[in-house]
Design goal:
23% strand; 3 helices; alpha+beta; 102 residues
Length: 102
């Protein structure tokens, strides 16, 4: 019950953070993400995947392609590597994904 409520609040805060970034209010968006992470830690719930992959881990800015993040896809044999670069602080994260198809 409490965990469901906490995850709902986290989802609402994350969507508000995305809206704040689109309006150009990065400070407010970072605050929303901080609050969402604080709720997750307080209730002892696993951080949702959209929150783990949707923010920059260094500056806590929500990642929106073309606005606050640059995404590149590199194809190497079995795996594809998705490289995300934060346009605010320059932090680079790499996410290996199994190639689908063939």
């Amino acid at each position: 019950m409490l965990k469901d409520l906490a995850l709902e609040r986290v989802r609402i805060l994350y969507s508000e953070a995305l809206l704040a970034v689109r309006e150009g209010r990065l400070d407010r968006a970072k605050r929303y993400v901080e609050l969402a992470l604080k709720i997750v830690n307080k209730v002892n719930v696993r951080t949702p995947k959209y929150l783990r992959r949707g923010i920059c881990r260094r500056c806590l800015t929500p990642s929106i392609p073309g606005v606050t993040a640059r995404y590149r896809v590199r194809g190497v044999r079995k795996y594809v590597i998705i490289t995300r670069t934060c346009l605010v602080c320059g932090w680079v994260s790499r996410l290996p994904c199994r190639r689908v198809g063939k």
